[in-house]
Design the sequence.
């Protein structure tokens, strides 16, 4: 009996030990231990099974069999089962189902033993989709309706919201209003750093609303892989190794040669030729036919195709505000062919039926018709002007502009009466027809002004002010679509006819400089060019930075005493203007985001003043590069207003202050509080008495320097046609253009598309011309002729 008890005790203790050991081992299992089996099927519109479809839990991937059936053992950490929409199909309904752990969080119950994913055959043709970055929206605004109008009419294959939907309210708003159901096409979301919010883990709310943060899909022969950010406002629940392990498995599943597009809110891997590296896992994206990398985060538009890798990288802006580099409010339309050829179109937002037309006497007294026309949602199909019962078609000369001539001679004395006989008819792609007046631009009465010429250069012009040398006028056109439109332009000063065009690698968006018949300009990638101003031939060029694209360079250049200054932060560089030899390169500070405030040298002290947005202003010895002083305080660091020098001082504005600063010491001799927002570029006009500058929110303002900067006047413009200054929106009256003082008159352009003339002492209105496209650069005078460019790429010469 005792032996039986002993044996029983031994057996019991052994079993207890075994169970304890099993429990201990189970507790010690890695987090990725599998916990459930999911079964299901992928079917087409006829209910037939679809073979070879990839299904994943975010860690492992299986494919459906010949009957469309699949079986996957889910990972313990997996929260979704999702389908990679197969080649030749598009999804019907959701592409994912929550696994057990997410069903508990979302209260969405689904039988995981009989999951059905549905697809249908997609039509052929070129893939087209919309790319939006950093919408950061939480309430309904007009841009949403304009976006929906574009989608409804043009029917892109999908709309990509490339992260920073933004915080809890933004995530919830988008999940209500910008869904596949409400757009009528697939809505594709990616996780941004501001989409990691409070919860059990950073991406919890995003997953409840939008599903998995890591997934892939095919569309018209192109394979898209959407991966999440690795860092953000809250800690994510995954690691780089988690993401890259799944990414490698996904890419191994696709047919070799398939064009691959990577989607990520952040931009990583560029310096390593897109070899994405975790702690122990790396993925060489070039092995998998990577054609494009779509990202956001920087609040800019940038299109770059690498000469080294052949990969096109595309960053896109949002349609509801100005960009950090003052990129206009916009979204991007991207098309990709089956072999990976990419094209792009920026749609400035949000404009409806915008039509402005004018006429002036051209050469030989012919009547020239000029129109700036834009609708965000609908293309302009045709523009005709009606004159004496006949219709004369206008020709498109840029994304905004149309031109045409009326035949025959017109008596100069009767030109003003033509307004009663001229009419414009614009047909948009949706069938809308807008009839508009054509107004005379020239004026001979109280304030005479005559358009000498308008040179239409085909692409857009941003903040680049014209430069004049001998009989030539210079400007720059830019192209954020990769269509070869980036160039420096020279036209004849007397008639605007083209003299030469020098092509650039990427966009020049700010001021150029002239010295000894050489034109200097720096593009957004940091490529500095020296071009002979009379011939358009390259003298020398220099790449100021390597292995990086961001921050993009939007500051412009300056030349002083034979030295050209360009670059930002760690690649701020001084070069010999004759040959491009480097004299010094900044090693004293690094700046996060480039500003649009152009660098200047104060000639008496020889101090170079430059800046970095969100960081501050920095003063260097212009000859040696020595950092003399810096200002990083909250009143200075939003450094976007272009500084000027006057009688041995630097003068500029911060968002809420006017500053007068000693160039050598940085001492703030005057710091005057103002009730205006100044994070726009507008270069101030400074005299002994006046300080005049454009504002971000309320047009142009003038202050009395002789009377403690007492406000003299404020001239309010119309709300901007588009938004440019960072985060501006909601009908702000932004003036990016630098004002010009001439014979006691202030001239300036504005974001509302007007050129204005006001009395310098009183701000009393004199005249305005409705150009119809934002004027963002400085106004330049030469022999009482005003030269300026509009966003539509037109260079104007107006005699006053």
Sequence:
């Amino acid at each position: 009996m005792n032996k039986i008890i002993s044996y029983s005790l031994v057996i019991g203790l052994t079993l207890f030990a075994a169970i304890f050991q099993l429990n201990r081992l189970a507790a010690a299992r890695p987090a990725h231990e599998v916990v459930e089996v999911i079964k299901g099927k992928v079917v087409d519109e006829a209910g037939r099974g679809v073979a070879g479809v990839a299904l994943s839990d975010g860690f492992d991937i299986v494919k459906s069999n010949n009957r469309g059936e699949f079986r996957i053992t889910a990972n313990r950490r997996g929260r979704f089962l999702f389908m990679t929409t197969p080649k030749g199909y598009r999804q019907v309904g959701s592409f994912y189902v929550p696994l057990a752990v997410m069903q508990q969080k979302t209260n969405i119950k689904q039988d995981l033993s009989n999951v059905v994913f549905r697809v249908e055959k997609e039509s052929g043709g070129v893939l087209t989709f919309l790319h939006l970055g950093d919408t950061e929206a939480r309430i309904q605004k007009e841009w949403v309706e304009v976006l929906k109008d574009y989608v409804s009419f043009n029917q892109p294959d999908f709309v990509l919201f490339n992260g920073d939907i933004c915080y809890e309210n933004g995530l919830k708003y988008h999940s209500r209003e910008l869904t596949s159901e409400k757009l009528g096409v697939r809505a594709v979301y990616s996780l941004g750093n501001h989409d990691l919010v409070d919860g059990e883990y950073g991406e919890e709310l995003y997953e409840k609303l939008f599903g998995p943060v890591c997934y892939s899909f095919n569309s018209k022969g192109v394979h898209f892989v959407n991966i999440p950010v690795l860092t953000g406002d809250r800690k994510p629940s995954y690691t780089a190794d988690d993401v890259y392990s799944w990414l490698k498995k996904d890419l191994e599943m696709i047919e070799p040669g398939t064009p691959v597009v990577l989607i990520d809110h952040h931009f990583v891997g560029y310096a390593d030729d897109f070899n994405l590296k975790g702690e122990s896992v790396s993925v060489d994206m070039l092995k998998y036919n990577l054609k494009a990398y779509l990202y956001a985060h920087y609040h800019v538009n940038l299109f770059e195709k690498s000469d080294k890798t052949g990969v096109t990288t595309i960053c896109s802006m949002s349609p509801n505000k100005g960009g950090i580099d003052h990129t206009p409010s916009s979204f991007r339309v991207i098309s990709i062919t089956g072999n990976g050829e990419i094209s792009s179109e920026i749609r400035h937002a949000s404009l409806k039926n915008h039509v402005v037309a004018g006429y002036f006497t051209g050469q030989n007294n012919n009547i020239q018709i000029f129109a700036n026309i834009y609708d965000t949602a609908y293309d302009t199909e045709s523009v005709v002007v009606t004159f004496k019962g006949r219709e004369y078609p206008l020709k498109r000369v840029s994304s905004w502009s149309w031109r045409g001539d009326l035949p025959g001679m017109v008596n100069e004395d009767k030109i003003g009466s033509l307004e009663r006989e001229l009419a414009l008819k614009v047909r948009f792609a949706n069938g809308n027809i807008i009839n508009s007046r054509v107004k005379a631009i020239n004026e001979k009465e109280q304030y005479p002004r005559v358009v000498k010429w308008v040179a239409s250069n085909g692409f857009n012009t941003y903040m680049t002010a014209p430069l004049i040398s001998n009989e030539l006028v210079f400007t720059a056109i830019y192209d954020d679509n990769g269509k070869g439109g980036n160039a420096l332009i020279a036209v004849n000063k007397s008639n605007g006819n083209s003299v030469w065009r020098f092509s650039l690698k990427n966009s020049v968006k700010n001021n150029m400089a002239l010295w000894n018949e050489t034109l200097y300009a720096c593009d957004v990638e940091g490529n500095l060019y020296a071009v002979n101003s009379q011939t358009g031939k390259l003298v020398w060029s220099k790449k100021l930075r390597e292995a990086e694209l961001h921050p993009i360079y939007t500051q412009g250049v300056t030349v002083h005493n034979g030295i050209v200054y360009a670059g930002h932060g760690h690649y701020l560089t001084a070069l010999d203007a004759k040959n491009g030899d480097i004299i010094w390169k900044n090693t004293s500070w690094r700046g996060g985001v480039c500003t649009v405030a152009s660098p200047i040298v104060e000639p008496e002290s020889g101090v170079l003043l430059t800046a970095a947005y969100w960081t501050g202003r920095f003063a260097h010895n212009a000859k040696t590069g020595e950092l003399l002083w810096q200002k990083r305080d909250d009143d200075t660091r939003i450094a976007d207003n272009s500084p000027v020098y006057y009688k041995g001082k630097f003068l500029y504005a911060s968002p809420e202050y006017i500053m007068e600063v000693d160039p050598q010491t940085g001492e703030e001799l005057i710091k005057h509080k103002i009730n205006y927002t100044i994070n726009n570029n507008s270069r101030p006009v400074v005299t002994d008495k006046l300080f005049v500058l454009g504002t971000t929110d309320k047009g142009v303002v003038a202050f009395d320097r002789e009377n403690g900067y007492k406000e003299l006047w404020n001239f309010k413009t119309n709300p901007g046609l588009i938004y440019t200054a960072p985060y501006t929106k909601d009908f702000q009256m932004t003036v990016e253009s630098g004002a010009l003082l001439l014979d006691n008159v202030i001239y300036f352009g504005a974001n509302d598309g007007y050129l204005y003339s006001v009395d310098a002492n009183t701000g009393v209105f004199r005249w305005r011309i409705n150009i119809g496209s934002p004027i963002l650069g400085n106004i330049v005078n030469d022999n009482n002729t005003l030269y300026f460019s509009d966003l539509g790429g037109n260079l104007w010469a107006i005699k006053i």
Observations:
- Residues 1-34 have pLDDT under 50 and may be disordered.
